[in-house]
Structures are given as C-alpha cells and as structure tokens.
Design goal:
This protein is an alpha+beta fold and 231 residues long. It has one domain (10-230). It is built from seven helices and eight strands; from the N terminus they run ββααααββαααββββ. The strands form two sheets. A six-stranded mixed sheet has the order 1-7-6-5-3-4. It has a two-stranded antiparallel sheet with strand order 2-8. The N and C termini lie far apart (44 Å).
C-alpha cells in the first residue's frame, strides 16, 4: 500500500518570546510525519469499510458484518500502536530489533509506556482565527490506552469461531443485527484521532494531526510544531 503524504507545516509555540531560539524540523521528523500521515489514511479507509459494512453497503448478514467490523477495529488498534512507534522514532529504544518486528498492539503500547509515559495521542480541538490557531485539549469520550488494549484483546476473541462448548451460544449472538458496540468503538476512535497531538519525550516537538483535512481532499494532515528552546 502506498502511503500518501500529508501537507507539512511547521508551527511554533510561543514564537514571540525573548531569549529563545527557534528551530527547523529535521529530516527525521519530516519523514516520520509523512509516514504517520499514511497510517492515519489507512485508519480512515478502515473506518469507511466499517461504516459501509454496518450500513448495509456490502449486502452481508449480521455474522459477517460483525466479523469484518471487528477485523477493522483490530487493525486500527495495531495501526495506532505502530503509528506511535513511528511518531516516537527519535527515542533510541524504539529502534530495537524486538520493537521493530513486534506487531502485537498490546506489547507495543506497554513497551512505549515504559519509554515515554505520555506517548499516546491526545485529542484536541483546533480553531482557526485569522493567522492564529487555538488548540484545546479534549479530556473525555475518546479511546484511552487501556480501552485500546481491552478492545484489541476482545477483537482477538471475536475473530475466532470459539470453542465447541460455546459454539452454538456464540453463533446465536452473532446472528443478532445489533451493532451498537461496534459503532461506539468507532466513535471513540474518531474522537481520539479526528484532531490530535503527539508530543516528544522532551515535550519540545509535536505532531498536530487532522484525520480528514479539507485542503487535502479529506486525507490526513500532519503538522510539525516546535517549541522554542531557551538560549
């Protein structure tokens, strides 16, 4: 899958501060922002597949709608985890052989938690006023780290046909055309990623991300924001 590049911008926090030096983004940061934008675009596509399945666009019965939907949710969990690895590629330990080959979202998240407690995306609300952009943090309603891990485990269970002992009971549940749980998980993903910030370990570099940016035909946009450094 080819990753489409998002628009790159450089934002500066507290630009008009005395005795501070402004910085330009590094090639590593620029490459990482493009890679991360591609991951967000894949998440966008998987959300569309999930919505299409639930809204009847695939002409499937309830069991297959649930199966396809939970597959998308599991993949989205993995993409968030891998995206965090990409965004924090400046941390040396993220380049370790074990992390580079790991696909398990829970293991990646647990390892990143140890390396950088604030590694996880944080949802924000961006409001433009002329040349100024105001950013407010969102504190509820999004997919938390612990919820992502629980969802990842739950998807693993739901994507198996189950044990013989519980086979019929599980089959009966799968036949029910009630997808409120899937819709709620999808909503939490959107609140988390629609507009969000990822901050570096030193809290001086930030990715400011939009899942669907109007100027890029509703594809992802990742801006690099750099805090000034005291002289």
């Amino acid at each position: 899958m080819a990753f489409a590049e998002g628009i790159r911008q450089e934002w500066y926090f507290n630009k008009e501060v005395n005795n501070m030096t402004l910085r330009n983004s590094t090639k590593q940061q620029t490459d990482a922002s493009n890679f991360y934008a591609g991951i967000l675009n894949e998440i966008n596509d998987r959300i569309e597949i999930l919505n299409m399945a639930i809204n009847g666009g695939m002409n499937l019965t309830a069991p297959f709608i649930r199966e396809i939907s939970y597959l998308q949710l599991r993949m989205m969990c993995e993409l968030v985890a891998i995206g965090c690895l990409v965004a924090h590629g400046d941390i040396d330990d993220t380049k370790s052989h074990n992390l580079q080959k790991e696909f398990n979202a829970e293991k990646i998240i647990n390892r990143l938690e140890h390396l950088h407690p604030n590694f996880y995306p944080h949802p924000v609300r961006l409001t433009k006023n002329g040349n100024t952009t105001k950013m407010e943090r969102i504190e509820s309603g999004f997919l938390t780290k612990s919820e992502l891990i629980n969802l990842y485990r739950d998807c693993g269970e739901k994507l198996h046909r189950g044990r013989l002992k519980s086979f019929k009971e599980k089959s009966d549940k799968m036949m029910q055309p009630n997808f409120s749980d899937i819709l709620e998980w999808g909503r939490k993903f959107i609140v988390l990623l629609e507009q969000h910030q990822i901050s570096s370990l030193d809290n001086l570099s930030h990715f400011i991300c939009t899942l669907k940016y109007q100027d890029t035909n509703n594809r992802a946009c990742v801006a690099i924001a750099l805090s000034p450094i005291p002289l």
